[in-house]
Specification:
2 helices, rod-shaped, mainly alpha
Length: 132
Amino acid sequence: MLKVRKIQEERRQADLARALADAAVAEGHADAARQRYADVDASPRVVGAAAFVAARALASGRAEQVAVTSSRHEMAVGESDRARALLTEAMTRTSGLERLVEREDFIALRELLASDQRAAEESAGALKRVLA
């Protein structure tokens, strides 16, 4: 059972690492989209109506990309938070089970030592009777 818990914990660690990597990639995409949006000249030199419409469409498209990539980044951060919580839960379960196993081992050792002590006392008593 303990091996299963440790495997689950390792899996959760991998999930967290993957979620953090995804969040970092999403953050990079969001930053790039914000930079592209900032590069759009706020007041382009417009020659005519067609150029104005094209400039507005470009700015609108880049603003939409900022919204989409920022949303994806927030979702990735949320997923990494969820993965972190699941890892914490798995670590807690593993730790609790490890303490139970250690306690069982300690109880078994204590019983073995008590049994050895009784056997030693019986041997000593038998030896005294033989010598007496």
